[in-house]
Structure formats: C-alpha cells, structure tokens
Amino acid sequence: MYPARRCSVFHRDLAAVCRFSLNKETHPKRFSLPASPSCHIAGPDGRKREPQEKSRCSSPRLASCKPACPMGSGSSSRLFGTLAQQNYLRDPEPQDSDQDQEGLERADPDQLLRECEKALQNRPARPHRDLVYPADPTQQHRHRNQQDTPSIRVMTWNILAQGNRPSIRVMTWNILAQALGEGKDSFVRCPQEALNWEERKYMILEEILTYRPDILCLQEVDHYYDTFQPILASLGYQSTFLPKPWSPCLDVASNNGPDGCALFFRRARFSLLHTSHLRLSARMLPTNQVAIVQTLRCRVTGQRLCVAVTHLKARSGWERMRSAQGTDLLHSLRAISSRPSGSDPETACRDEPGRGTEGLPVIICGDFNAEPSEDVYRRFASSPLGLDSAYKLLSADGQTEPAYTTWKIRPSGESCSTLDYIWYSHRAFAVDTLLDIPTEEQIGPDRLPSYHYPSDHLSLICDVYFRDPKDHGHRLT
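The structure assignment produced for this chain is given below.
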C-alpha cells in the first residue's frame, strides 16, 4: 500500500466524477506535448525496471474497478445488445464546452503519470519508441541509424519547423478488451497475471499520458464509463463511446459490458460541431462493426476537420465484408465532410486548405483488420477524399507500411501483421512526426500482450498540421 496515493484522483468515487457535463474549459489552451525523451520508466534507484516472473504490484486498486455492467448470461447479452442498437437511431447532439463543468475536478497529468509509474514499478518498462520526423525519404531514418543522435534533437527541430502552425497529435490504439483478453483471445504465451486489469489499466493510461494526444481514438474499449471517460475528462478531454451491437465480450461471464470504439479530443484545442454514430453496412445489411465520426473546429486556427474511428470485421475469410464496410464508411465520410455542420458562411471552403471538392479534411483511425494487400486498403488509398496512410512515411521510399502493428501468438499459431492505420487528407495536412515501431527484440519472444505491453496491438501516433493555403496541392511523400 502506498499511503501517498490514498487521496489520488484514481481512488475517488468515479461515479461522482461522472456527474459532470463536458462543457467549459477552465485552464489555458494547451497544445501537443512531446513525449518524454526517455519512455522507459526508472525505479527509485534510477535503473530501468526489470521483468519479473510474476507481477506483484502492491498499489491499491481503483475504487471503480468493479464491473459497471456485470453480466454474461444469454438473456443479459440480448438485453445489452438491444440497448446498444439504440445508439444508432439518431446522432447525438454536440455538447457545449463553454458551460460550467459541474462536479468535474481537474487532474494534473504529471501527477497521474507518476501514479501509473509507481503502480507499475514491479513491471518491466514499455518498449522504448522514438518520435521520428519523416522529412526526406533519404534522411528520415537518419537518427535511427546513427546511435549518437538523440531523440530530443528531433523534437527540437520539429518545434522550430512548425513555426506558427501548431501540430495536432493523433493517437489510435486497439487497447484489447479486458473480457476478450482474459476469456476469448487465448494468448498462449502471455501469463494470465499479465492481463490483470488492476495493473493493465495503469499501463494503458501510462501510454496515453506519456504522449498526451490532442485526438485519441480507441478500439475494443470495455471500460469506458468506469475508467477512461472519467479519468480523461478530468484531464480536459471530451469523448463519445459507441459499443458494438452484439459485442463478443458479452459472452464472457465476467464481462464489463460490450466493447466498442471511443473518440476523445482536448476541449482546449477543439470545439465539437457534430457527432455521427455509424453502424457499418455490407451490401445494404447492417453489420456488427461501428464507427464514430466527429466534426471539430480547431480553436487555434478556426479550421474544421472530420475525425473518424472504426474497427472493421476481424478474421481471415471476411475480406469482402471488410471491403464493404470500408466502402460504407467512406461514403458516410464524404457526406458528413461535405455538409455545413454549423459553420459560418464567411468561413467557407476558401479558408480551409484541402477542402475543395473533397469536403472537409478528414483523419481516419482504427483497426482495419486488413493487410495492405486487401481491397479495403486499396479503396481508402484511392478514395476521392484524397487519403494517405501516415505510417507509410516511416519507410525508406515513403510508400511501404510497417512490417507489423500487431504481433501475437494464439493456439492457431503466430500472427505478425499490419492492421492498424492513420489515414489523413494529404492536401490539407502535412505529417510532422510519427511514433516509430518497436523492433522484434524489443517486443520479445512471447510477443504481445505481455508484462511490458498491455495490448496485442501497438499504439500509433502521428503529429499533423494544417498546410498553408499557399501550399495547396503539395504532397509529402
């Protein structure tokens, strides 16, 4: 027990915290913060945490760790599925972020990060990852190939290069639904103790707090109401959650409700204009996969953008369904990005670079469950929305996706593949930095998840900024 953590915001009654309305921003505007120069968490003696055979974290448990919806029977699954489908009947109304936030106590992100580190002091450190600037295909990996080039040099260069165009940090991550990790996904090389929610939630929050994105897109979220919504709201995020109509989590006896997609954004950086909850279709038939699309206005530049998060159908053999779901999402995005969404007539497309015939610029994040060779990938790459995949810029030619974004071992065998993407409108946005992919050695022989990483998918982070209107048409490749 750590006495210093007894009064922590992690241990408040989160039910009381949830009584807020996501409204007025009470602190000065903040922009994207760079990650810590060292992503390793050191112990009290300054040394890196070393792996343990078994996690023995003695930190107190979160007060809210009891399941919000402790159900798992067939009848309860049907009930929750029926309730979940009501989310698609109409789009939710945007909340006014300028009203008072009753009952919301603001938290210090640095303090929360320290609490995560303390709770995880008996776990090995997360894999070290650098923020990479893909300025030139021939030079973009210079700092990775030269051992004497520190990552802080890259960070400083980016700040100077941006000038008066502050970047937008976007993070996407399939965080692995707790019910699936413990009950259905069968990670044969991952000890059950490594999936313990009492510690795994700290690892997820530690990753988020380390990089502090402006926009956060999560998939497989089954602890939204009791963990992520209240904690991130106390850090200044506004959010929305959309569960799957028939979540596989509900088949697990100890589930915490259905999993789904969640989209968070900083209220200090953006104001919400419109939210669309989508149940994706395939050949006119509704499927079990969902997407959230939000139209935001940047408080710094006044420019608007559409942000989407999705999680397409999993498993081999469902390539055609993924393609149909992707087509449906692209069709919806074209319609949503083309409508006014509450904009003022004087801020029409002439002031928004990259809009043109494509509508508002878009950023699409998610677990597509599709390799780059699949049809759904080609549909996004050739879409009239003018999309590029950000993580191609990590490659030497700027045209090749990473070798993997997920690496796991199941009873059926080892799976190493690229399934996660950040798509962006290349005429409207330029890529500033990307969080690189850990090596095979860093991931370890037991792959993911593990004691040192909480999910079977890697988080992806991309810093983008609005292009100058004079640069319209220029494309970074």
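Interim note for the steering committee: The chain has one domain: 131-471. The first strand starts at residue 131 and ends at 132.
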